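Before a colleague's protein record goes any further, I have to sign it off. Alongside the sequence sits a line of tokens, each denoting a local backbone shape. I want your independent view on whether this chain really folds as the tokens say. Where you disagree with what is written, explain briefly why. This is what I was given:
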Amino acid sequence: ELENRGVVGREWGGGVAKWKGVWSGAGGQEEEEEAAPAPKKRRVAAGERYVPPPRKLKAGVSFSAAHFAETSYYFEGGLRKVRPYYFDFRTYCKGRWVGRSLLHVFSTEFRAQPLAFYRAAARAGRLRLNEEPVRDLDVVLKNNDFLRNTVHRHEPPVTAQPIQILAEDDEVVVVDKPSSLPVHPCGRFRHNTIIFILGKEHNLKELHTIHRLDRMTSGVLMFAKTVEVSKRIDEQVRERQLEKEYVCRVVGEFPEHEVVCEEPILVVSYKVGVCRVDPKGKSCKTIFQRLSYNGKTSVVKCLPRTGRTHQIRVHLQYLGYPIVNDPIYNMEAWGPEKGKGGKIGKTDEELLKALVEEHRSKQSLDVLGISEEDLNTDAENQDSGNSSECTESVQADPINENSCPAEGTKDPERNETPACTLDPDTNLETLEKTTELGSCENKEKDPLCMECKITRRDPSPKELVMYLHALRYKGAEFDYCSKMPEWAMEDWEE
């Protein structure tokens, strides 16, 4: 019923969230609630809990100044970092939750956090049901219940390399995207994305994504400034009138002659963002041509004729020439031949476990765009579809994230009781017994936030670069090209 109505759904426990929602089709846009007169309450039986009717959603509203003002950046060690901030995850009650208590939903579907966390969050005013603070987690959920969870959000660092504007006119903006930056909000990323940085630092707003690049892929990225331009170029995409040209550096001596790979590709995990060649996968085609060889590695031109997730990377791995520093497809977890010819020798579950363990041992889970909490949560067993690595494909994008108001603003739909920041020395057991809450002041540290208690190793700038670059994007009316990356020069050495 919720999907038929176009209502957003949200996995929202423990600060780890995953969307299956309504995507407006425009980069950097999300649904917002439309202000409407408060509906008259219907009569309910004695003891029955009233549930207001669902609010209207106003589609296609761009990220605004309030969204951009949620937090700020700072730069350290060659990295762009986001200061932690408070954020609201919102959802209407999912069909399978109806008739279950809120406590039961948390205990079965959001096990990334102990139940003590949710009890403490309720005490702190972080959990709201139909905009009223949740006082009793044993409350039984009903259809159309609207829930809001305020969390302390941390984003992984990305490269501090600036976004270069390659071209801009009244119709389009073309940028040279640095590696490690997602195009739009997804998974754990929101402010550390191309859409947010362009809006906050270049005053480029209301942009529509025309095509997308994997988070670790750099290069030419194009946005339309209007819906009309977006539709016109989308038509060219459907008619296969656009040409994409990539360049990469791979392990070994790639053949001198042209190589064509048409192996079908299957998604193994949306959560971790892993694909492999499989007969049950989607059909695709990539043409490869070697440009140079330095005795150890080869620079290869790639011409994808389809747009599957990780297509170039998976095809190169299958051919036995993975990208030199690919954090997924050039790992020992794939076996002694690293997936060449589709030889893996593991089940998908064993492969995913091995990949995660390999990155965990290197303290590099952030390179995959996931955290320990992501791995612990059971939400993926219920809803798949959001790749934590923010892989970009031609499908709809899970970014319908409704923000909490910026500092100094009020949400007319919210009860005025604030969700507070507590004394940083307070533990969960103490909070469960506490009735008086502190004031909302410190946004950098939060006593309920597990991330605040963890010290993570920062990735080096080198770890945030993958040797795959979108060199050229050509259509009937345009031809945009970036400079060849330094690592793609013929005489370059590691």
Notes: Residues 1-29, 378-389, 391-426, 428-440 have pLDDT under 50 and may be disordered. The longest helix spans residues 348-361.
